Every structure is written in C-alpha cells, then in structure tokens.
Amino acid sequence: MATTVTSKGQVTIPKPVRDLLGITTGSAVEFRLTPEGQVLLTRADAAVRPRSRFARLRGAAGPGMTTDEIMALTRGED
Prior knowledge:
- Helices cover 21% and strands 13% of the residues.
- It is α+β, with helices and mostly antiparallel strands.
- The chain has a two-stranded antiparallel sheet.
- It is elongated and about 70 Å long.
C-alpha cells in the first residue's frame, strides 16, 4: 500500500492497517527503525489496550439463565 506525504509531512494510514492495529481517532502511534532500515508502525498503547475490539468482552458473561429458563421465558410460561 502506498500513500503520499503532504507538505506538512503528514500521511494517511490506510484503513486496512488502521483496522488491523486498532488505530482510531486519538490513538497514539510509534515508529521504530529496525537494524535492517525498515520502519515499523505500532500502536503506542498496544500493551495496554486489547488488539481486537471484541477481546475486552471475552469471558465477560457471568452465570445466567439455563436454556430451559430462557425457553420458558420466551414461551411466556411462569
């Protein structure tokens, strides 16, 4: 993916890259230079926030109703 540098030195991070890294408005990013001369772009707060927007919801459900209770509720049974 290619992008163009503006006169202010700004670039637009392509949407697939933003989605992959979970970069949204206000996210801090970090540029790192590798020994091979490549530049790596990472989210600066990646260690703090989960990569997936769904990851923070994993395991969040507590004990709930049984299947029989849900079916009875759906059917209007008391």
